[in-house]
Design goal:
alpha/beta, about 45% helix, binds pyridoxal-5'-phosphate, 14 helices, Aspartate Aminotransferase, domain 2
Length: about 400
């Protein structure tokens, strides 16, 4: 089975985990600072702090901007459903802005439509690493005097007119979760030029206790998962895990499991910082390699698939290959599984959050959600696998 995701764990990471040493609060402070400085250098010299996760960075941004119960926040209608639950848990009122069916992203027009007199901030997402029209959205936010939060969870290394994604809003969050462009087995980045936000976030982060264990535990769990994914039994397991009619149930369970082992409310560890430095050093090459693979895969797809328009507004970072297909996706996934290709569909890819918010005015997100197919795109795909994937997709999309 060609798996939907591949967790990037090298011998260097394992050796580091086992014998890396120096994992104590003092050493961590210096190593985490080195990682943050290196990330800052790639992000145009902005202020950068490592957090426990992308969600944690978002919480700190919302706190720093003084957003509280009852405040409205414009969010993309096509995004991670767990974010909405988290925002509502803080008493905020997310309002979904629809997305464009070709780019899957919010637009200046859809954001403008979602803004009301109660809106206190706007969140824009560079979905699957593809830059959205962040300049246009920033102009709309500025017109209304609203802070813009750039969700760069998928987009480390994306650029717009040569400027890094994450440098256009009042603040940005990045995710450093396992399959992300810079993956440190949990973690996130808070990026901002706003001094008050910096001071509020630093006061919070500097009080966190230090423990190397959560990230180490998560790394070991991911090692086991990767061994299982590479074993011959994975094909059968995938068919059992990803078969329900309402696709997305297992993925949500899987993400929930992640959340239970994710480092939360602890400081970023030495191991994560060293791993992060290695990933930053390889980031440009990784994005180049996977962007090329993305182009090759797009060219090899049979008719019936419409790939994401991802280079309209800038240079994408590589995170997931998602296309739309108007056919019966449950059947498509089942037939592909039988031939050895692990496709993700509907809520296994990302969520349409408008229904969660009781909104019926986001037809774009509903269509993208209903037609989304993620085709494996990771460094485990070589030319032979790519040819095999194209053959399988041609076979399974025949009526
Ligand atoms: C769009 C989006 N925003 C934010 C996040 C949150 O990142 P994390 O899982 O590191 O909390 C994710 C996670 O995948 C995401 O997909």
């Amino acid at each position: 089975m060609i798996p939907r995701r591949r967790i990037d764990i090298g011998w260097a990471d394992l050796a580091d985990l086992l014998v890396g040493g120096g994992d104590n609060p003092l050493a961590a402070a210096a190593q985490v600072r080195a990682f943050e400085n290196q990330a800052a250098a790639l992000l145009g010299g902005l202020w950068v702090r490592a957090t426990a996760s992308g969600r944690d960075a978002l919480d700190l941004i919302l706190d720093g901007l003084g957003l509280g119960a009852g405040d409205e926040l414009v969010v993309p209608a096509y995004t991670l459903g767990e974010l909405i639950v988290r925002l509502q848990g803080r008493g905020l009122r997310p309002v979904a802005a629809d997305v464009d069916v070709d780019s899957f992203a919010v637009t200046p027009q859809s954001v403008a439509r979602a803004i009301s007199p109660r809106t206190r901030a706007v969140v824009a997402l560079h979905v699957f690493g593809a830059p959205c029209d962040i300049r246009g959205i920033a102009a709309v936010a500025a017109q209304h005097g609203l802070p813009l939060i750039e969700d760069c969870a998928h987009a480390f290394g994306a650029r717009i007119d040569g400027r890094p994604a994450g440098s256009f809003g009042s603040a940005a969050l990045f995710s450093l979760e396992v399959a992300k462009p810079v993956a440190t087995f949990g973690g996130g980045l808070l990026v901002t030029a706003d001094r008050e936000l910096q001071a509020a976030a630093a006061a919070h982060l500097d009080r966190r206790p230090y423990s190397p264990w959560p990230a180490a535990r998560k790394t070991l769990m991911k090692c086991l998962e990767e061994c299982a994914v590479r074993s011959p039994a994975y094909g059968l397991a995938a068919r059992m895990m990803f078969r329900e009619q309402k696709a997305g149930g297992f993925e949500r369970f899987y993400r929930g499991l992640h959340d239970r082992v994710r480092p939360a409310d602890v400081a970023f560890s030495c191991f994560q910082a060293r791993r992060g430095l290695r990933r930053l050093a390889g980031l440009a090459q990784r994005n180049r390699q996977l962007n090329q693979l993305w182009t090759d895969l797009a060219a090899a797809l049979p008719p019936g698939f419409t790939v994401q328009a991802r280079a309209r507004c800038g240079e994408p970072a590589a995170y997931n290959f998602v296309a739309r297909h108007a056919g019966d996706l449950l059947r498509l996934r089942r037939r592909a599984q039988a031939l050895g290709l692990d496709l993700a569909i509907h809520g296994e890819v990302l969520d349409d959050v408008a229904p969660l918010l009781g909104q019926t005015d986001c037809p774009g997100a509903a269509q993208v959600f209903a037609q989304a197919v993620a085709i494996p795109l990771h460094l485990g795909i070589d030319a032979a696998r790519l040819r095999r994937m194209a053959e399988i997709l041609a076979a399974v999309s025949r009526p």
